[in-house]
Design a protein that fits this description.
The complex is a heterodimer of chains A (about 90) and B (about 230). Chain A has helices at about 1-5, 40-50, 55-65, 70-85; strands spanning about 10, 15-20, 25-30, 35-40, 90-94. Chain A is an alpha+beta fold and about 90 residues long. Chain B folds into 2 domains: about 1-135, Rossmann fold (3-Layer(aba) Sandwich), CATH 3.40.50; about 150-225, Arc Repressor Mutant, subunit A (Orthogonal Bundle). Chain B has helices at about 15-30, 40-50, 70-80, 95-100, 115-125, 135-160, 160-170, 175-185, 190-200, 205-215, 220-225; strands at about 10-15, 35-40, 55-60, 85-90, 105-110. The termini of chain B are far apart. Classes of the chains: A alpha+beta (about 90), B alpha/beta (about 230). Chains A and B meet through α2 and α3 of A and α6 of B.
């Protein structure tokens, strides 16, 4: 959450690739051989990890689209970004 | 038994009668769904929505007479409680964004199975917003881009003094330099100076561009308020 407040910009690790299919989407990390499955929202967040978009911008856009509370969306986005960070598929740009 | 259920009342709008017939048969085989009106063009869809005030309108994006986006906007005016699900022939980000902006609650392509249409109808009736999973990322990126543009526009507008905002409002109405001078009871030279300042602060190169900036960013109403 601190990163959100500090306007950090998550960025995808360039060697991690996305396998998109109708029924499932997965991130494949060649360095560890790990595969991470993404739900549609996580996939959308992954695509927004371009080093330009702040977490706060992601939260506001999802709120605008869904009409959900900012607090609820912030929790989801934070959790997703934390998972990406923990699994090492993103880094942060300030 | 089915009569005890509070059915979801649906208006179905599509130019093709075969498609309407097929969808009607499938939806009405569900105990909780009921078609209360049909339309083959946009204007009739609006009229049917006004007549029946349905829970859901299933609306083709590409309708004759009044396209699905305009029809969505009109339906939300005549029957605000109705929720609109726009159906499109393929995944089109512009149509999706325009539909949501017009007040639609969801978007589906006509390539989806009928079971998905049934699920989508129930989902938007529950109050959910429905966007195809593959289009979610690009749609969010578009919303973020638009918000950045709005923020940038607000930043530029905030550089203007009150007088310069008045000048911008008159520029946006296409009023000449002399007209602006008369309206604000200032000399033509002073009006010209204000106009130059407005163009410089907005970072635009002509009066036309300034007027377009005001319109594109929905500033006309705001400018109206300060006059």
């Amino acid at each position: 959450m601190n990163r959100l407040l500090h306007d950090g910009r998550p960025v995808r690790r360039p060697d991690v690739w996305l396998r998109e299919a109708d029924s499932e989407n997965a991130l494949c990390d060649p360095s560890s051989g790990a595969v991470h499955f993404l739900n549609p929202t996580a996939l959308a967040i992954w695509n927004l990890c371009d080093g330009q978009t702040t977490a706060m911008e992601m939260i506001r856009a999802i709120c605008e689209l869904s009409g959900f509370d900012e607090e609820v969306v912030a929790e989801d986005v934070t959790r997703t970004l934390d998972t990406f960070e923990r699994t090492g598929v993103i880094t942060w740009k300030s | 038994m089915a009569d005890d259920i509070r059915r979801i009342r649906i208006v179905l709008a599509d130019e093709q009668s075969l498609f309407r017939e097929a969808v009607r048969v499938v939806l009405e085989s569900e105990p909780d769904l009921e078609i209360v009106g049909e339309a083959r063009d946009g204007l009739r869809a609006v009229a049917e929505a006004e007549r029946t005030t349905p829970d859901i309108v299933l609306l083709n994006a590409d309708l004759p007479n009044c396209d699905g986006i305009r029809a969505t906007r009109l339906i939300k005016e005549v029957s605000p409680e109705s929720r609109v699900l726009v159906l499109s022939t393929d995944e089109d980000l512009v149509i999706l964004a325009d539909a949501l902006e017009a007040g639609a609650s969801g978007y589906l392509t006509k390539t989806c199975p009928l079971s998905e249409l049934i699920d989508a109808t129930r989902a938007i009736h529950r109050g959910e917003t429905l966007v195809p999973a593959r289009m979610l990322g690009p749609l969010l990126a578009r919303l973020i881009h638009r918000r950045r543009e709005q923020d940038e526009a607000s930043k530029r507008l905030s550089r203007l003094t009150r007088r310069e905002r008045e000048v911008l409002g008159l520029l946006a109405e296409g009023i000449s330099n002399e007209g602006i001078a008369q309206a604000l009871v200032i000399s033509p030279e002073t009006a010209r100076t204000h106009i130059q300042n407005v163009l410089g602060k907005l970072d635009v190169h002509s009066r036309l561009e300034a007027a377009a900036f005001a319109r594109q960013n929905g500033l006309n109403d705001e400018l109206e308020l300060i006059r």
